[in-house]
Amino acid sequence: MDKQGTQSSGGNAQPKNPMNKEAASRIQSSEAKQHGGGVPKGSFASRAQSTADKRENQNN
């Protein structure tokens, strides 16, 4: 951990459980239910979906 109490990724380290489309979909669904069907721009759910999309594009 660094001085602020967070772990450093150390450069190109891969996450233990990388974000995938299925996980992003579950997160987005849950958040939409909490917000009356919509997902706010910049929310965790929208960032998760963006990350999953980027990972999928890198693998293709």
Automatic annotation (TrEMBL):
Annotated segments matching region Disordered: 1-60
Q: What segments bear the compositional bias annotation Polar residues? A: 1-17
Name-wise, this protein is SMP domain-containing protein
Organism of origin is: Pocillopora damicornis (Cauliflower coral)
